[in-house]
Amino acid sequence: MKIVALDILEDSILAGIDAVALVEKPAIETDFFAFAAEQFAETYNDYPEAAIEAARQGIKRNEEIGNKCATQVGKVRAQQLANREPISLDTVRRMRSFLIRQKGNYELAQERKDYNACGYISYLLWGGPAALPWAEKVLRQAGEKFGENEDPTKTIIEGIIKLELEKMGAINIEKMGLEVSELPAYTNELTTGSIEVNEGASYGFAAVDDQQMLVGPLMTPGKLIPRKDENEDVYYVYFTEDSIKRIAYKAMQDKIIDKVNIEHDSGNNVDDVYLVETWLVEDPANDKSAKYGFKPVKGQWFGMYKVDNADVWEGYVKPGLVKGFSVEGYFAEQVIKN
Predict the structure, then answer these.
(1) In terms of C-beta density within 10 A (0-12 exposed, 13-18 middle, 19 or more buried), how is residue 127 classed?
(2) Residue 48, Cα to own-chain centre: how many angstroms?
(3) pTM for the complete prediction?
């Protein structure tokens, strides 16, 4: 498997970002928050009684052991399910993703009859076994297809690259807001404790409806992005925190604040959509992005765009046809050798 680090060439006038695209599925993350406030999204609360009961059992078991299992997002999700609160399609998507990833930990705890294991409790908090087929049914009814095109190795490879970057000093896992015990299940033989991916890390943008603003991360350090080469073979690229900083600075130098298109339709920039604020996350615990519902990681590059184009807002943002940012440009590649 080829993994490539991307950066800009300092001495090239072509290097850097050409535009920022509004896209339905940002490459930096497939499980993302489309909106911080779900005012445009259809919601669902017809999940099975077994999922509600599982969430309640998970809450009770977690309380009995001092609430040591699950991230805050997992605990909030359990409260939503236990109270049959409406959840968005994006939340259903994240439920399915979590339940698929953690099914092995849940089944292992069942075999061992270890019902206080965090892998067991966390699975219950997200609705347990009954929640997965329900989530897949909802997603299919919404027109989503999954299964044959999914890449089961991506989660594993992504965890490996985080560990390797930690060794290289490029990314500090703790500073990114991830505990080692929150890495995916394949790290089980290396760590102990709760095995749960931090689903709180937010991607996509938040829509501030009354002001017609889009807020969200443009780039995230260490996030593996799948690509295909000329032979249609999949490989992965990523950016380091340092390279993202250089790219962000050069973007301002090149004045790309109004270079915006839809779904990478290069050469057809939309009018009246422009960058009004941008920043790099230095202190995730106190970063202003939390105001919009995000849980940032150190080194993320955020942007806020004003949308004065009614066609873009009414025709793409409100229906959910675009849900995040995706940068496009010319970057140098450096293959990471085994």
Answers:
(1) buried
(2) 26
(3) 0.49
